[in-house]
Design a protein that fits this description.
By secondary structure, the chain is α/β, with parallel strands linked by helices. The chain has four helices and five strands, in the order βαβαβββαα. The longest helix is centred in the C-terminal third of the chain and has 52 residues, at 95-146. It is elongated, with a radius of gyration of 29 Å. It starts with a strand and ends with a helix.
Length: 172
């Protein structure tokens, strides 16, 4: 999970980060808009963020990026000694993030894949339970509606071929 900030963590960001860490999410913190800072300030801020996010995130998982192009003022010295200001476009740079993600995949890719598959399978189980419950309720409603106004005959039972039943359905 990418957790994008543009400066030191605010209290609500720290709380959110702790909640994500409690859910055992792998987190990379991205200091965006790194161009707002000179190199010394940026390095200090990355160090500060690394301290703020520990132990939820390793210090190596804090990177500085620039996600949009920006303009910088450049002073051009002319041949006669005069200075001329000019605006220069600086391209986005997410390469530190790309390098970090590649390192994570190289080192932990298998575990991340397995964790993701487990998460998806949990979702499928919940979905199957919900579908079975809906089918059961739908069949039960049709069964009771078909006897309205007529003498009740022998009770029909409705069966669905589903091995995953909610607890309240299994007990009936």
């Amino acid at each position: 999970m990418l957790f994008v900030v543009d400066g030191p963590l605010k209290s609500y960001e720290s709380e959110l980060l702790e909640a994500l860490a409690a859910m055992e999410k792998r987190i990379v913190v991205c200091l965006n808009k790194e161009d707002w800072y000179d190199a010394e300030q940026r390095d200090e801020l990355v160090r500060q963020l690394g301290e703020q996010v520990t132990p939820a995130v390793t210090k190596a998982d804090v990177v500085a990026v620039r996600s949009r192009p920006t303009n910088r003022r450049r002073v051009h010295v002319l041949s006669d000694g005069r200075e001329q200001d000019e605006e220069v476009e600086v391209e986005p740079d997410v390469s530190p993030l790309a390098r970090r993600m590649m390192a994570i995949v190289a080192r932990d890719g298998r575990e991340l894949l397995l964790a993701n598959l487990l998460l998806q399978s949990r979702g499928l189980v919940d979905e199957a339970k919900s579908e079975c419950s809906l089918r059961w309720m739908s069949g039960r409603m049709r069964s009771s509606a078909s006897t309205c106004g007529r003498p009740a005959g022998p009770r029909r039972s409705i069966h669905f071929r589903c091995s995953i039943w909610p607890a309240e359905v299994r007990s009936r």
